[in-house]
Amino acid sequence: xxxxxxxxxxxxxxxxxxxxxxxxxxxxxxxxxxxxxxxxxxxxxxxxxxxxxxxxxxxxxxxxxxxxxxxxxxxxxxxxxxxxxxxxxxxxxxxxxxxxxxxxxxxxxxxxxxxxxxxxxxxxxxxxxxxxxxxxxxxxxxxxxxxxxxxxxxxxxxxxxxxxxxxxxxxxxxxxxxxxxxxxxxxxxxxxxxxxxxxxxxxxxxxxxxxxxxxxxxxxxxxxxxxxxxxxxxxxxxxxxxxxxxxxxxxxxxxxxxxxxxxxxxxxxxxxxxxxxxxxxxxxxxxxxxxxxxxxxxxxxxxxxxxxxxxxxxxxxxxxxxxxxxxxxxxxxxxxxxxxxxxxxxxxxxxx
Length: 352
Description:
Helix content is 34%, strand content 18%.
């Protein structure tokens, strides 16, 4: 009987029921009414069903704000089951069409492919401008570069800060490439007026204060996946941004932490089709941070392109051996140019 009732819930009203609360046998009518009143006060429509072994309550409406664990902590509740994902605005079910993010004229998603390239960290005017010119000539459409750098060690190079952003803007004016750079704290946003796209790094994916603040801005956001984040946690981070009104979000898979020690991280290529299934937001891949080795960038880039990614983010440095940050994973301009030719050729083959 219990299984039959459960089937009623997940098929009734074509999926409108978003959560099921299974009550314990000893649940009193008074306690049930108290719980029901609290849920109805939040605009939730209740659909109770009495089974032979369990009493069930189906919830119809937006249950994304309900705390599943808090409900389960009640002494009359046996378990709580979500029927739909808690992310609503990022969910493809509620937004079937692909979102196309526009970064100062460069489109990402919905069939539009973008390559972001540049140094891990901005170091000198000569370095950033030379790199910008080289990556543009090779086919990059957005210049990436770090001015504020979150580093594992407090003794590592932390970036040039606002001065580094000024150098990126200089390169932007020189080449016409829009720029993307990482912001680490809401207090830094004052320096990002001329930055075309804000990057939220892996370590800040769940910095909810920062997510809310960038959500209030009319500026595209590149949201990197956390080191050990699930797809749902990643999309819920995007939901934080979207809940404040900013829907221009590009997700970036940059490798997750696994048991493997041969590579810096493990690039999750599965994220491409899975995110496209779960969400309407575009997803790009960062093969540089994934393996941490420049020789791995080419095969991972081609695998990501073949897998249907909406773009790539690749580290390029004019002299990787002298880079102040992540030199071992950066490509030289000539290596990058060779790679982009293969990427574009592969896309042409896939299109036909």
